[in-house]
Amino acid sequence: MNPRITDLWVYLSTSPLLGLTLTLLAYQGAVWVNKRCGGSPLANPVLIAVTALVALLLATGTPYQTYFDGAQFVHFLLGPATVALAIPLYVHFRRVKAMLLPIVVGLVAGSLTAAFSALLVAKALGASVATQLSLAPKSVTTPIAMGIAERIGGLPSLTAVLVITTGILGAVAGRYLFDALGVGDPAIRGFATGVTAHGIGTARAFQESEQAGAFSALAMGMNGLLTAMLLPVLLTLLD
Amino acid sequence: MIAALTQLLIFQLIGEVIARGLDLPVPGPVIGMALLFAVLALRNGPGESLQTTSQTLLSHLSLLFVPAGVGIVVHLSRVADEWLALLAALVVSTFVSMAVTALVMKALAHKAATGEKA
User: Fold this and answer.
1) CB-based contacts of A230: which residues, under 8 Å, 6+ apart?
2) Cβ-defined contact of A221 to B30 (cutoff 8 Å)
3) How far is B97 from chain A (nearest CA, A)?
4) What does the pLDDT average to over A153-163?
5) What pLDDT is recorded for position B118?
6) What 3-state class would DSSP assign to A136?
C-alpha cells in the first residue's frame, strides 16, 4: 500500500473517530431505509445498522474492540436514556395505576414464560448447558441480563448478543402478533413488548405511540427486577 | 439541553452509587429512573427542557443498541455451532411470551372493566 494511505489507516483505525462516525452513519442509513419501507417493523433500524457494521468489520478485519473504542460514546448514552424513561412513565402513570392487576399478573406470567420456554427449547434441541443458561435471561435489558448470566453460570457476553437478538425479534414481530391476537390496547401491546423485548422493543413501541412506549419502559424495568430476583432461585430449586 | 442532560446524569450517578454501595442486582440507571420518577411525582412533572431533551434522546433509542449488537462478531463461531437451537429458542420464546403476557392482561383488563360496570 502507498505509505501515506498506510499512515492514514493507522491513524483512523486507532482513533475513536471512525467507529463513532460509522455507527451514526449506519444508523441514519438504517432509519432512511425504514422510512422508505413506510416505517415497517420488518425493516428494523437496529437490525439493519448492526448487519451493515458487522459486514464492514469482517470485510476489513477490524477487531470489535477497535470499533467499540469509538462506538462506546453512543453506548454510554444508554444510561441517561434509561433514566429519561421516567418521564413518559410519569405522564402515563394514571393509566398504570388503573391497570395494576393486569400489569402484575401479566408481568409474572410473561417473565417466567420468556425464561423457561427458551431453556426448554434449547435443551430439547441439544444446546450446551452454558448456552442454555446464557439464554435464560434473554428478555431482560442488557446490563441486568449480563449480571444474571454471570450468577447462574452462563456467558455474559453471549447473553448480551441473545438479548439484542430477542429485542429485534420482538420489535419486528410484535405488531403482527398483537393484531392476529386481537389485542388493540396500546398499553397492553406496549407492556407485552417490554416484558419480552426490553429496550429495543421499547424503541419500537415509542414508534407506535407514546403510551405504548411508556408501558413498554415500565415492563422492561419491572421484568429486569423480577428476573434478577427470581431466576437464580428457581434454577437452584429445579436442579 | 445541557441542564437537562446534567440532570439525567446526576440521577444515573446517584443510582450507580446506590446500586454499587448496597451491592444490588439492579443496574444504576434503572434505580436512577425510579428516583427521577419519584422526584417528578413530588414536583408535579418535568420542566420543559427536561421534557424536550428526554423526548429527543428516546426518539433515537434504537441507535443506542447498535454498538452492543455489533458484539455478535465476537461470538460468530458459537452462534455458527449452535445456531438452530439458539434461533428456535429465541423465536419460540419471543412469540410465546409476548402472546402469554398480552392475553393474560387482556383477560384481566376485560374482567376489571366489566366488573366496574356491574
Assistant:
1) A111, A112
2) yes
3) 5
4) 89
5) 44
6) coil
CA-based angle A166:B76:A147, to the nearest 5? 50
pTM score, whole prediction: 0.86
Do A192 and B101 form a contact (C-beta atoms < 8 A)? Answer: yes
Cβ–Cβ < 8 Å for A168, A44: yes
CA-CA-CA-CA torsion sign (A160, A90, A195, B87): negative
Q: What is the pLDDT of residues B58-109, one digit of tens each?
A: 888 889 989 988 988 988 888 888 899 999 999 999 999 999 999 999 999 8
Using a CB-CB cut-off of 8 Å, the residues of chain A touching B26 are 144, 224-225, 228
Q: Which of B64, B85, B101 sits opposite A125 (nearest CB)?
A: B85
Name the 3-class secondary structure at B19. Answer: helix
Q: Which residues in chain B have their CB less than 8 angstroms from residue A35's CB?
A: none
How far are the Cα atoms of A171, A206, B2, B93, B94 from residue B102, in angstroms, in the given order? 15, 17, 39, 14, 12
Distance, in Å, from the CA atom of A113 to the CA atom of A163, rounded to the nearest integer, reads 15
User: Can you give the pLDDT at residue B116?
Assistant: 55
* Alpha helices per DSSP H over chain B: 2-21, 28-43, 48-59, 61-64, 66-69, 76-81, 83-117
Instruction: Give the closest of A45, A85, A110 to B101, CB-based.
Output: A110
For testing contact with chain B, the best of A62, A87, A165 (most B CBs within 10 A)? A87
Put residue A141 in one of left, alpha, beta given phi > 0 → left and psi -120 to 50 → alpha: beta
Q: What is the ipTM of this complex?
A: 0.89
pLDDT, average across residues A110-129: 94
